[in-house]
Fold each of these.
Amino acid sequence: METPRIVDIFKQGQPHQEVVVQGWIRTKRELKDFAFLEVNDGSCLANLQVILAPELPDYPELLKQLNIGSSVQITGKLVESPGKGQKIELKAQEVRIYGNSNPETYPLQKKRHSFEFLRTIGHLRSRTNSIGAVMRIRNTCGQAIHEFFQSRGFIWVHTPIITANDCEGAGELFTVTSLDLNNPPKTAAQELDYSQDFFGRRAYLTVSGQLEAEVMASAFSRVYTFGPTFRAENSNTSRHLAEFWMVEPEMAFCDLQGNQDLAEAFLKQIFKTVLEKCPEDLEFFNQRIDNSVIATAENIVNNEFARITYTEAIALLEKADRKFEYPVEWGIDLQSEHERYLAEELFKKPLIVRDYPAGIKAFYMRLNDDQKTVAAMDILVPKIGEIIGGSQREERLDVLETRITPEARTELWWYLDLRRYGTVPHSGFGLGFERLVQFMTGMGNIRDVIPFPRTPMSAEF
Ligand code: 4AD
Ligand code: MG
């Protein structure tokens, strides 16, 4: 017999129907004449209640073995549930235990656990309601992202994870090497000799797929990447990971205005899809984590984002009725406290800030006519701050050459070549996938929205 997922049983199951269910026991309750199990298979938040009656073979022995955390297969008949809330439950006819669990030592008990504690049991925490709901929403976001781009004719391209360039120029790179670090080859200057390394040069884990996405956009017009990126920035914050997933569309024949329009439509579409497909999980976050989660999602779908320039943002910050830790003046990089003040308190919705000072942004951003600012845009949202960073790219070879360091100019000869052979105005952005999921769920720490977080001093699971 086909084994349905529990989510489908709740949707389609009819009383008297015979089903086979497989999952893990969340709780066991023994009454005088019956026992109840709550079984979960990860397909939805709700557990399926299973009734065990004494007529089952070896009932007393069976009960002893059915413990919280055990994996089981239960064959039985669906019956209407007398309890309120759930309309269907399962009356067991046959129980098979795949793997027993020791209820004394199983780290997940019925009570609520702190997220800090759950991080110490990364191999088991996905069996909790909260991490389970996060991962389902994460999955739906991923699906919505592909659908958004695919329905607009974007080609999904796979950019390399190992690269020789530092796209963002921030020096937050992890080196990839196969040299024997206990006995490495050295140059005359006593530095590591990467010419003898695997790739014959120094290589890194990528911080962004953008430069390669620009190559692909110069052939396919509209492309996107969706892959892991790595940053060795030593920030132990609730919004930074050393390994995170980034979605990066890149569009030829597109300026900053088009870039902003796409990014706004993109976020709206993702929130709309999650509202439609994950109402139960969203409701869970709304009740347990942050009671503004659903209102925020609806606000994003239904209202236009605010759009201002960096210069306007600075003026607003200077007028603010508070002191910031980092003083405000034209030319500073916006800190998270500034970003949050703007999005959370002033505009109370997503805000696109554009035209940042050239000095604080990456070399590839297009220089504006004022010669002071670049055609950059960041999307700032309440609670998180920056969720998307993007720009129109510098497509003029002569201008790009003035913005690039001499070393990068040699290394990125192929990137400059794009400006020699059929250059076009083009734009793109990067969405931090975990920041999106964090924003959507209201989760306080980014480490709890990725299955296996990588942060300074932590890569256990
Ligand atoms: O603003 P960033 O650095 O932009 C880029 O990398 C561009 N190359 C993107 C592009 O134009 N194609 O990073 C993009 C987004 C940020 O807005 C943020 O949401 C996320 O990536 N991000 C991080 N997320 C988690 N942990 C970190 N350490 C992050 N650093 C950036
Ligand atoms: Mg950025």
Amino acid sequence: MNASTSEATSDLSFKVDRDHVGWLTFDRQGASVNVLTPALMQELDALLSQLESRIANGQMLALVIESGKEGAFFAGADVEAIANLSSAAQAREAASVGQRIFRRIERLRVPTIAAVDGACMGGGTELILHCDYRIASDRSSTSIGLPEVRLGILPGFGGTVKLPALVGMQNALGIILSGKPVRPARAQRIGLVDRVAPSARFRSAVSEFAAEVVSKRVQPATPQLGFAQRLLERTGPGRRIMFGAARKQAAAEVGSFYPAPYRAIDVLSSAVGLKADAAYALEATALGELAVTPESRNLVRVFRLSQAARKALPPDVTERGRPVEKMCVIGAGVMGGAIAELAAAHDIPVVLKDIEQDALDSGLRHAADLLRKAAVARVFSDEEASLKFALITGTLEYGDIEDADLVIEAVVERMAVKQQVFREAEAATGNAVLATNTSALSVDEMANGVVRPGAVLGLHFFNPVHKMPLVEVVAGPRTDAEALATGFGLILALGKTPVLVADRPGFLVNRLLAPYLNEAGFLLEEGRGVEDIDAALESFGMPMGPLRLLDEIGFDVARHASREMASSFGDRMTPSGVLDRMIDDARLGRKNGLGFHRYQDGRDRGADPTVEALFAKNSALAAGPAASASDAEEVRSRCLYGMVNEAAHALEEEVVDGPDSVDLAMVLGTGFPPFRGGLLRWADAEGIQKIHDALTEYAGALGSRFAPAPLLVRMAEQNRTFTDLN
Ligand code: NAI
């Protein structure tokens, strides 16, 4: 037996064990995850030369590639490096270099085995695709994916070449176009991994697997295609149908806003039958083109902002918070039930308290329902869903919460009730942080009456909680650092992205939405059609138009919020009369089936033709039956410029720390189109002077609500952009 030998560079180490199996371990120094930086790729390249000579000398019979970070295989390519690419040629070259290095692994003259324990994304997936075998652990975080299209690019290190060869074209299309990761069981079914092993004894399972490979007791998987799939994938007409369907699906999902999925389909379809070199070259060229599109630049930017928000506590949160090991949610309504579910889904025991048995029952049902849906979506198993549900205890009494680390109230939006609830909660707990989910009330005022006002902060979740990634963390003037840090820690533990906001009316997101939604009302009163207003903003990329959004929010809730905004900010937030008119007509939005659209059995039945009649008296102002393109342009400008203007007011009041936070919050909190990079990045691209001039003109023609904010005026005078302010 040879003694094992080992070599280590900074992020890569290599050793050969007694069975002549080489172990190549990625372990990026000083980082919690492995990322394929250009420097790491170079190290790998150099190490491969050594491996080749060892193999030539007969010193190694197989190579295992693993991560030194338990439960975290590879986070993917280096987003920083993608952001720094300055030209299509440079991006193409970077892809070609990566491809060349990975193809060296493919050509090693010993069997290669990737041992995947934890998430394996992007470039990491392309790395393992160039190995002969893949073994994955059954850990809940283990998954394999190619999320590149979400950054506006496509896999560029050979993913589009290797994946279809391994799992068939249809599966490859699904994985590349959705960007969604594949869990181990499915990965094994489709041939993406050869074996799944228990994470508790993963390393020894990998050794055993390597021994089987060396003794030729296993063979690499070949794609297992059924008859219909073979017909689709292996015949010209079949492929035309398959790629046609993929294009249709892309059109339905991303419309014309995102070029990457279409380009990926082109690359995959053009590569069929090509020699490997040509297929790799096609991929590199397409990556080069996509990496410098504005869409990709903006998507990468938003991704980096959200990573940064999830990494660092804001500078003024100095003390570490305590981990939340038990929490209490008060109010089991729409929000409370969903927050309780979120906590339980992340294995935090929760006491859910209400004052009405019916409300409590319905909150618990809501939580159970969400957990069941997560099980159906295979986020976890049915059994796990039941275990998680058992973490929620429903109650009508305080009790059993003295050891809760954090209480969050989600009771009715009334100051006196919330103050009372905080007093009761403080008395029933020892030292808990007291959080409120209020959307509009003052956090500081809510702290009046408690013994520890420093323990009070806002954690503003968005509806629906399980889908919306943003939580506004509201710091009142008296909120202490421990409460803030505890709040931040909890939001991160719940998988959400926190943005720190000041205790000002509407915080950030609802405040910026107010002029946008109000303006849709004014436009309707002027006689514009429901469909025209919504279409103008949907064709800009908003997930739904402002009127459909009002339907979702509910007119009573929206009216309450808009009145609050008007009382805080005066004239510029004075709402149109549309919500009053709709409520007078017994319409509440989606919740009672009657909004700007009609809803039946939970389904949207389209714009309600009777709504426009409610505002018909003003139709003389309308553009006529067919709305023109310039009309759509005006709808869009009035709604969006108002939002930008309000952002300028909010920045001046230091509601957030800068334009980056506005952009991140608006993308994550309202679905502002990420391919536009966020509200203020878009405003910069649109032109500050142009927005300023339009606002001035609207202010003259339509009302002082459009008067440009002082910050915007200064920016226009000094020819500055929001980007300059960061
Ligand atoms: P909801 O009306 O669905 O639920 C409120 C629940 O609180 C009810 O079950 C009620 O029985 C219970 N409750 C009332 N007084 C109580 C007390 N003293 N002790 C315990 N429970 C009590 O309200 P929803 O929509 O869940 O809103 C709750 C809070 O979340 C509000 O502050 C609201 O502004 C905020 N919010 C609501 C959003 C939404 O879209 N619904 C979005 C973000 C925040």
Amino acid sequence: MAITTTPKRTLIVGNWKLHLNTSQASLLLHRLHERIKIYRDIEVVLAPSMLVLQPLSVQIDRRKFRLAAQNAFHKDTGAYTGEVSFAMLQDLVHYAIIGHSERRIYFNESLEMIREKVASAVRNGITPILCVGETKEENRAGETKQVLHDQITSALANLTATDIKKIVIAYEPVWAISTFGGELAKPDEVKKRMDFIRHQIADLYGKRAADRVRVLYGGSIDHDIASGYLSIEGCDGVLVGGASTNYQKFSGIVDAAYRLRYRDGVE
Ligand code: PGA
């Protein structure tokens, strides 16, 4: 079954992880603001720490940037010490990263918790960026498709076909994350996984939904290699970790996206 993919705005997401206090974050935003222009066909999203979301939301130029949370709690309110809910983030962020492998591995987030978080984000008008991907062991054991299937079907189980169209899915093979010059996933392999992800969506919600879902790639992306992934057919953008806190590298990735769109005559 072939799934046609309509070109969409390219989505470049910077996941700052556990880096940058409030003043460092403000300085990085300032630098990015100087270098990144307003692009009609490119959407740049920043995911700072929870602490920094509020001050950045005041500083940010909303024509250039949108904000994402790196995580949140699925209950809206209640006796849950230390948590911040999607409901509380409603006015601050457009997106939330959900199911990142670091949360699955270090914070024991189960398939069920991730499903609850996706449903809570959608209920509160926040677009989930659902991260899926296999570990090295699963990859070696030939289990990648099974892992992707399980992660996708369980995370999206509570959603309607209309909800699904707004979802973003980031394929992030765990073994390719933050390798700092080490192993990278080959773009032709990434394309196969992205096609597989879209087929899963098509099986569950039909071809139209599969076309509308945005699928990103993440795993040690920097300004030198970004275009190799951004030019994969059906790839709607990238999720960037390490390189996103370096303004030259991150703006270089946005430049690469711009050059590809311009070359392809989309602009
Ligand atoms: P990385 O991180 O770019 O440092 O590999 C990507 C991610 O964890 O989302």
